[in-house]
Amino acid sequence: DSAPLKGGRGSATMVQKCKLCSRENSIDILSQTIKPYNAEDSEKFKTIVEFECRGLEPVDFQPQ
Length: 64
Hints:
- The protein has a three-stranded antiparallel sheet with strand order 3-4-5, with no helix packed on it. A two-stranded antiparallel ribbon has the order 1-2.
- It is elongated, with a radius of gyration of 15 Å.
- Helix content is 0%, strand content 28%.
- The protein has 64 residues and is mainly beta.
- GO terms for molecular function: zinc ion binding.
- Belongs to the UPF0587 family.
- It holds the Pfam family CXXC_Zn-b_euk.
- Keywords: Metal-binding, Zinc.
């Protein structure tokens, strides 16, 4: 799903407004970077997705 950004600047996967400064922050999943994690990849580090973060920093990710 996508949510529109304020001011018509496009859209992002997650848009959140700061309660302190009222700034709009966003995270967008770059769909062309999504890769499967298979049994052959077990116990190896592998990039499975990339995010474009503006004002937010993910600290936890649960791929479900």
